[in-house]
Request: fold
Amino acid sequence: MIVSVALLFSEHKSSKIDGLRSTLSFFVDPLKYLVDLPNVLVERASNLINSYQVLRKENESLREAYLINQTKMLKFSALENENIRLRALLENSFKLGEQVLVAELLSVNIVPYEHIVVVNKGTRFGVHPQQPVLDSNGVVGQVFRALPFTSEIMLITDPNHAIPVQVNRNGLLTIAVGSGQLNRLLLPYLPSNADIRPGDLLITSGLGGTFPQGYPVAVVDEFTSEPSKAFSNITATPKALLDRSRELMIVWSKSIPVPLISKPIINEVEIKTRAIQ
Amino acid sequence: MQFNNYAGFFRIIISLILAMCLRIAPWPGDMAAFNPDWVLLFLIYWALAQPEHVGIFHAWVFGILVDVLTGRLLGQYALAYSIIVYICLKLHKRLRQFPFFQQGLFVFFCLLLSQLLLFFVKNLQSPAQLHASFWLPVITGTFCWPIVYGVLRFVRLSRRSN
Reply:
């Protein structure tokens, strides 16, 4: 009894217990997959039952979307190259493109009062803590803990989470804090005379180094300004479908900025963008 | 007899693993706050019914596993579970004589104590701001106790009839 308590406190103090945790997770992670199994089975069954017509329609619409995205990407890579050239003219550094890994959500609920979700990719796929996680609409959160076969992702709406953002319209910098509700972020650090309007898009500012710059985070909600208070009480709705998207993207961003333009770098960027495609 | 013992122990382990699955099972929407601590309920039952099979060590091991499973600070569930099971083992002879209602009350206080310990550890880690729903699993757990009691009793007695 005493031994167990002593062990607990030694674990509490030291931070070098990740090895033990990942070893134990070998026993426990299968349970997460087991709990997720009914969901997978239902999905497979519905895929089997889906009629040919529905599948064909879906295929067509997907192909259309793919074409549109492809053309957008053509323009995007040209713009990116131009951006690199312009930054080189300004002797500014440029961050290389990002690589993504698609991870699937496991439908388990490990803690009720915190917004932490579990995905099916872990350190075996090179996932590491503090990686940004996106879905197709915006920022979802960051990797909170990476275990060998699964990893825990803290959503941006978790009360313990804060993300540095900027207003897309005018570059106003602030921090969006999770509210504990899946459809709400708080912007508590804005003075009441800040230039922010309902409907403004908030994007990641890239400060803090965790999230790469320029991804959409949230849209500012309707609010009434109260000039009598020092800080205004503004909320925002996350862009990402936090409670609906099952596929998430874990992002690797090159942390070493490239100082000046040169041929090989452009090639590498092109390869990276192709990898994303 | 030896074989029978092993079979019984095996059933306890299987039931506890099932409890861990229930612990992380997804509940629709905000209902997740109601999900009681199944592992602790199961451990309390086995500690009362078969104290020769379930010891503090088992509680500790399952506590550590639950810690890893739910991504908590390693050891907080281990601490809570081992203390609760220790109390149960100390009192199991008396508790078996109690009427059902009083047993339920005892379980309520066990769950409350465990949640208090978790709260204490959480507070040590960082000043915790908690929703009132943190205490909900204690109440739902107490209401689930008759179900757990019935099901596990059935499991235990079906083993005996074999």
Remarks:
- The two ends of chain B are 12 Å apart (CA to CA).
- Helices of chain B lie at 2-24, 38-49, 56-70, 76-97, 100-125, 136-161.
- Residues 100-125 of chain B form the longest helix (26 residues).
